[in-house]
């Protein structure tokens, strides 16, 4: 588990400040370790993010910044450049520290010329903690601690760069791919966490509260859900079910099982939709699905009326839940939506299909059960004195067979076996027909 580096010197420095967040002053803002700072970046403005009084135990830090849907640019230099900056809604930079270094500066700007408001935080790590994204070969930054999200209607994919083992200030980091021994970065493990924002809440405040709840490792472990653990030999990616309109925060925690240390990547969020437009196991699954679809009707073939009533009660009550979903968001609609997604998208089987289950879902499940039970009981009561409907074809066949065996007065009892009847029919069709008329000798 990771550890925060709160040395007595830092605590002494923060006590006079009362651990309060520093106010943004013109084009400069000061970050305190672990304390979130709201920052507003005006158009054509560059805000200097300053981290000072860094204790010597800290080997590297990450500055992460989050906005709801507008891009921001975070850069090592005042003028952003390729490989030295990143533009996104969830972004962060990792800075390794040199011996004796006690401060550093990074720069925030708005790439689209609009005012951007967001929240940021500094997270410090020691030399024994893994370095997130230090073995990056896919993205632009030399060391990239970010989680990248891509989504479509069906699935949401997250990607990140592999980490490396930690190292002291001024030392050369270990090579990433020279060896796969346990003394290298190949011993690292990656825990992927998922945190659902409140349902039907697209507010900026809700997002920032969620980001603050899961920004560090302890917060993510307490509030998020670990859905997957990847080894260094696995692809550094994961696929999830897309839930348009539902806010989700993804985070990756890299762990060193030998030193029992860890570090957090920069969390990233998605609503699986665009704010620009009005807030704008495949085969196995289908085998199981088809088996369920066959087993349930076969189970009720002996009791067709009861089966029909139970089916109507459950499906009818669920139809009411789907109607409610048109006005109030509920995760229960994904019972059918996920099946449709699997049918329409062959790659959807690789996605994790977790959905948030919150207060509204408990309420609607209760409504579903009550409606289903009431509907089933009412129909059984109404049908109790009516003729049995419809007769089971299987029971009718059994009764007819038994009747033919026991009722000798029934003409069908004397029917020859089917094989004899078929043979007689074949003979009738192949028998030579004699010409009609009288045959007499010709009289002269």
TrEMBL record:
Transmembrane intervals: 283-303, 315-340, 360-381
Gene Ontology cellular component list: plasma membrane
Signal peptide: 1-23
A biological-process GO annotation: negative regulation of programmed cell death
One family name in Pfam for this protein: Ig_TM7SF3_N
Keyword Transmembrane helix attached: yes
Family annotation (InterPro entries): TM7SF3 (IPR042502)
Alphabetical keyword list: Membrane, Signal, Transmembrane, Transmembrane helix
Superkingdom of source: Eukaryota
Entries under PANTHER family matching the protein: TRANSMEMBRANE 7 SUPERFAMILY MEMBER 3
The protein, known as: Uncharacterized protein
């Amino acid at each position: 588990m990771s550890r925060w580096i709160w040395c007595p010197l830092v605590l002494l420095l923060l006590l006079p400040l009362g651990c309060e967040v520093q106010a943004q002053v013109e084009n400069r803002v000061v970050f305190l370790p672990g304390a979130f700072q709201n920052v507003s970046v005006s158009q054509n403005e560059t805000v200097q993010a300053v981290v000072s009084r860094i204790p010597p135990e800290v080997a590297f830090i990450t500055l992460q910044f989050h906005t709801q849907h507008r891009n921001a640019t975070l850069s090592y230099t005042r003028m952003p450049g390729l490989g030295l900056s990143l533009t996104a809604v969830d972004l962060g930079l990792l800075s390794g520290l040199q011996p004796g270094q006690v401060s550093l500066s990074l720069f925030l700007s708005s790439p689209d010329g609009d005012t951007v408001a967001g929240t940021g935080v500094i997270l410090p790590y020691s030399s024994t903690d893994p370095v997130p994204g230090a073995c990056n070969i896919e993205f632009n930054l030399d060391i990239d601690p970010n989680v990248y999200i891509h989504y479509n209607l069906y699935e949401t994919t997250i990607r990140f760069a592999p980490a490396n083992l930690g190292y002291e200030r001024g030392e050369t980091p270990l090579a990433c791919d020279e060896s796969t021994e346990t003394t290298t970065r190949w011993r690292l493990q990656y825990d992927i966490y998922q945190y659902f924002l409140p349902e039907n809440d697209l507010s900026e405040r809700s997002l920032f509260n969620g980001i603050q709840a899961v920004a560090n490792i302890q917060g993510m472990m307490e509030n998020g859900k670990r859905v997957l653990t990847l080894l260094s030999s696995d692809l550094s990616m994961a696929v999830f079910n897309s839930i348009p309109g539902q806010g989700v925060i993804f985070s990756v925690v890299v762990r060193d099982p030998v030193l029992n240390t860890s570090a957090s990547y920069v969390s990233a969020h998605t609503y699986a939709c665009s704010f620009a437009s009005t807030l704008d196991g495949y085969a196995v699954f289908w085998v199981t699905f088809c088996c369920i679809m066959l087993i349930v009707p076969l189970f009720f073939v002996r009791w067709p009326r009861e089966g029909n009533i139970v089916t109507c009660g459950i499906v009818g009550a669920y139809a009411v839940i789907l109607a409610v979903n048109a006005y109030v968001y509920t995760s229960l609609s994904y019972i059918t939506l996920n099946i449709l997604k699997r049918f329409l998208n062959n790659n959807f089987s690789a996605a994790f299909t977790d959905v948030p289950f919150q207060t509204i879902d408990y309420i609607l499940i209760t409504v579903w059960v009550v409606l289903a039970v009431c509907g089933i009981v009412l129909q059984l009561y109404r049908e109790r004195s009516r003729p049995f409907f419809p007769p089971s074809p299987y029971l009718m066949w059994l009764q007819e067979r038994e009747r033919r065996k026991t009722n000798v007065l029934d003409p069908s009892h004397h029917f020859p076996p089917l094989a004899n009847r078929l043979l007689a029919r074949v003979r009738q069709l192949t028998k030579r027909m004699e010409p009609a008329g009288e045959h007499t000798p010709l009289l002269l």
